[in-house]
Give the backbone structure.
Amino acid sequence: MKIIAPSILSADFSRLGDEVRAVETAGADWIHIDVMDGHFVPNITVGPFIVEAVRKVTSLPLDVHLMIENASRYVADFVKAGAHTISVHAETGFHLDRVLHQIRELGAKPAVALNPATPISQIENVLGLVDMVLVMTVNPGFGGQKFIPYCKAKIKALRGMIDQAGLKTLIEVDGGVTIDNIGELSRLGADLFVAGSAIFGSPDYGKTIAEMKKKIHAA
Ligand code: DX5
Ligand code: ZN
């Protein structure tokens, strides 16, 4: 199954509840929440408190993308707040194995995220521990950036690596996803598509998500 996950980073935060309800009505499958600490990335966003607030207005799975140092210290709070999946960046610490186990033990789905420049070989050993790999297709930190083309080869190679290992691991693409490139990303092997500005910046969320789904399924 292919999944569209609007990123609330591009939503109007003064009307966050309405925005989340609007994308749910518009056909969103998951809600993507970007957590930034001003250390791992040059921006600061939200914490467990906002995850908990979003949890109250939707029944969709909450896909929490941690762009923070010391993820291990915070994962319990995010699970408690209602996270379904928690992505931790492979670049953020020495104890990736430990934090991925920790997330599963807490009852959420562990995922590992990769910056554009990080090779997929870095996660070879933990592939069997995660439900999903998040491939960043822009440098993390901000919405509305341009898709980095060399990431396409990475998605394809990762698909091959997962299939060869006989795993069911999902591939999520995050950054610069639009109606124009989503079909190709699906053909390359992506299963989940995060889109912030392409959805929240469009005049009709329902029309945009329907168009994206059409492109994914035609792929
Ligand atoms: C960037 C975030 C993305 C961001 C994507 O660091 O991880 O989830 O919201 O925004 P768009 O879709 O506008 O590139
Ligand atoms: Zn994200």
Notes: The chain has a mean pLDDT of 98. The first strand starts at residue 3 and ends at 6. The beta strands are 3-6, 31-36, 62-67, 85-89, 109-114, 132-136, 170-174, 192-195.
